[in-house]
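Database export, one record per block. Field names are fixed; values are copied verbatim from the stored entry.
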Amino acid sequence: MPKDSRKAADGSRENTARERQASAAAEENAQPEATKLIEEVLRRENLIAALRRVQSNKGAPGADGMTVEQLTPHLKTNWPRIREELLSGTYIPSPVLRVEIPKPDGKGMRPLGIPTVLDRFIEQAILQVLTPIFDPHFSESSYGFRPGRGCHDAVKAARNHVEAGYRYVVDMDLEKFFDRVNHDVLMARVARRVKDKRLLRLIGRYLRAGIMIDGVIHDHGEGTPQGGPLSPLLSNILLDDLDKELERRGRRFCRYADDCNIYVKSKAAGEQAMQSITRFLAKKLRLKVNKEKSAVDRPGNRKFLGYTMTPHHKPKLKVSPNSIKRAKARVREIIRKGRGRSLSKVADELTIFLRGWVNYFRLSQVKNVFEELDQWIRRKLRLILWRQWKTPRTRARKMIARGIERARAYTSAYNGRGPWWNAGASHMNAAVTAKWLQQQGLMSLLTEHQRLLNLA
């Protein structure tokens, strides 16, 4: 190689090395000193932001009964002592109150941990410091509980993988993930970037904080209780090893918390991926795959974050059947609580739920779901009126007042059919129109979905 060429190559390598050093230095300067993170956690501006977040999230009291409203007065009196305990490494978190809530599918109960509001405040302060340290290194295919990312990003990415020809999905369900996390394995991964032993000790104590069940405190040897602000970040830190392994293998995947889908081109490739990743999770992270809930299948036969897909070459997103079932269960619950109230009040409460629901499923490209749900909800509201009218004479009179011809109104009122049949019959559709129900405050899912599409 000519001397000038060698000099140019050497200069290029030196420039590259300098750029790497500068990039590393910039990253190091942008983050708090790794051995003094507890001081960063306790910085006034960080604490004020954490307090505001806890107050805005509200939430139920923990094991000590302290409410969110009582937190500020408590801190004014006790913060100097608490701060000193945090700095000296002697602070002991309170036990986590264990409650159970129904699972979204209605099958069984899901345990939920409620830390005290003081511990939620401290965990939030820790989270705000650790997120900038860990998040930039997470996978681009990880979407859960990360700044600037969400469910919709994950669902769009999943559709893109299928459209690109990866028409089988390895749908992996981690068995009782939040209850089975191994503390030693997790803390080893936290310690890769956190060198402040005081903060590591504090995080470890939060993981091992006892659980209060029916007033009795139980030891907590494994798991990260769902409900604490820190738990989602810790789960991402642990499962980042899974992400990196999938990237190393060149796999296409989407992960949202413990919900991981891997996209492949054939069922055989999917079966192989399922077996090898199951072994990796058991060996490296000590996590178990729930074989009953996991499968290799077509994406249209599985759900991901409430969505599923059509089998077209260019798949369309649509609301999964299970999500529709859950929405109907919620509507029934609202209507059941609304018996005896005016229809307008029931419609208003339904609209609050429906607006949030359709906003979440605004990515759906299949509109008949919204149309069918609209019809079903209107029928449920007509059912309320039919029952409120009680007697055939009252029903006939109400229908006449709503424009139904007298003979038809009396024939319909005395037909001897049940309430649900009448709620779907033509005479109730004519007497209680969709337009009138909207005037009472009921939102149309189909109309709202179209409005959201036009805004996109």
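Remark 1: The two ends are 57 Å apart (CA to CA).
Remark 2: Confidence is low (pLDDT under 50) at residues 1-30.
End of record.
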